[in-house]
Design a protein that fits this description.
The protein is α/β, with parallel strands linked by helices and about 270 residues long. It has helices spanning about 25-30, 35-45, 65-70, 80-90, 130-140, 155-165, 185-190, 215-225, 225-235, 240-255, and strands at about 50-55, 70-75, 100, 115-120, 140-150, 195-205, 260-270. Helix 6 (about 155-165) packs antiparallel against helix 10, helix 8 crosses helix 9 and helix 8 packs across helix 10.
Amino acid sequence: MTTDTTTNTTNTTQTPTPLWALGDYHAVATEVIAPLGRRLVEAAGIGAGQHVIDVAAGTGNAALPAAGTGADVVASDVTQALLDVGQRAAEAQGLDLDWRADDAQALPYDDHEFDAAISCVGVMFAPRHQDAADELVRVVRPGGRIGLVSWTPEGFIGQMFATMKPYAPAPPPGAQPPPLWGAEPHVRDLLGDRVSGVEAVRERLPVSRFATGADFRDFFKATYGPTIMVYRTLADAPERVAELDSALAALGDAALADGRMEWEYLLLTATRT
């Protein structure tokens, strides 16, 4: 994930915990959204011998399957705690990756250094969208590939963020909403004429992890940094906690059909000009 902010709202004498280090994002990545990384690697045409960067890699949802193809992979993320988890997962699978603590908005790599840049529901959380997009484009060689998976505004996760917004603290100045990366016109504008052959398709991730909306809510309250952060800001407002509990459970129940949800995402690939 990318661009951590402080989240400890209960004791200001303690060192703040980075947003994406809260909870257990690896559980989300492995128990719920694991297919997304493999889908992105396939769509971007990642393969043996390529030098690839996974931007805002988290614990390696896309970086690990990319390395599994034989590519030389840099897994880049601002949250060291996620990189540490990912590195242990890579070692357990016998995969060798380069894990780097970087800001997606200011990558410390040369122009045209990589054959491909990918990001799986990661770079979308960089608050300055244009800066992040500029970096994605800059580090890829002409003819190289860019591949992105982002939650759509209208899809389930986009609606989860919309549900939490009235309860969340104000974003930092200049920050843009993450689900905008799931809107094709927005991403096309970000990348501009520096790419060609853009292919964008909305797909759905089937999710059978949750039996009820309350199950979904409780899992995200325990594992997902943005959700945990919102609840921490409500620590002294139990009535607001109850309202948000009810709203998230209702969102989950409405999305369930025959024990399954479908979470919409935008899969976008392009070639660097």
